[in-house]
Design a protein that fits this description.
four-stranded mixed beta sheet, alpha/beta, Putative transcriptional regulator of viral defense system, AbiEi_C, 9 strands
Length: 215
């Protein structure tokens, strides 16, 4: 199986009907071959961390430069460019052939809050973030530190989701990290109207209703 020019990956018998191993098994080999910094992110990372409310339709990878989307066997890879990919917090996920770089649960929360479309919309984003808090026992200090890599809006949105849908998490370190970075209110829904009630704890304009998706 040749997912990129000059790269050949063997397919073991259990995956022959798929045409290729699963995405997590080949992403590191592919990215090394392309010489691109990367990490597995968004819903793909969330699933690996146990937040599997909705199986992602694509295998989502953050990259340091443009990489074209491609289908490899049953896996449809989509690549989203991120600044400073190498500096973002990741864990090394064990695979059959070695390891793969996967966003930490905290980085995954922020990536999802930043890119609601990639998360399947705002309701699904809220649901997955709540599941990550439940499954991963988020390190809020690490979450606050990672929030420095994003606009204040992202940390505020993530904090509001967690306050609303994962009660019991002490979010004060995150709130302190993002509250004073700008005095202007941020929008809960970046595509929504610039109106709605103001959540003063997060300086966030609640410009639409958000509901967790049911199983």
């Amino acid at each position: 199986m040749t997912p990129a020019h000059g790269l050949w990956i063997p397919v073991s018998p259990e995956f022959r009907t798929w045409g290729a191993p699963p995405g997590i098994e080949i992403v590191d080999v592919l990215m090394r071959h392309l010489d691109v910094d990367y990490y597995v992110g968004w819903l793909s990372a969330a699933e690996l961390h146990g937040a599997s409310h909705q199986a992602p339709q694509v295998f989502q990878v953050a990259t340091g430069r443009h990489v074209r989307s491609r289908r490899i066997g049953r896996s449809r890879f989509t690549f989203l460019e991120r600044d400073s990919v190498r500096d973002r917090p990741v864990v090394e996920q064990q695979t059959r052939s070695g390891t793969a770089r996967v966003a930490t649960p905290e980085l995954t929360v922020l990536d999802i809050a930043a890119d609601l479309d990639a998360a399947g919309g705002i309701d699904n984003a809220a649901t997955v973030i709540a599941e990550l808090a439940d499954q991963s026992r988020l390190d809020v200090e690490a979450l606050a530190q990672a929030a420095e890599l994003f606009a204040a809006t992202v940390g505020r949105r993530a904090g509001w989701f967690l306050d609303r849908f994962a009660p019991g998490v002490d979010l004060e370190p995150l709130r302190e990290a993002v509250y004073a970075r700008t005095t202007s209110p941020s929008l809960l829904d970046p595509t929504g109207p610039h109106e709605g009630g103001l959540d003063t704890r997060w300086r966030l304009r609640i410009n639409r209703e958000v509901e967790e998706e049911s199983w």
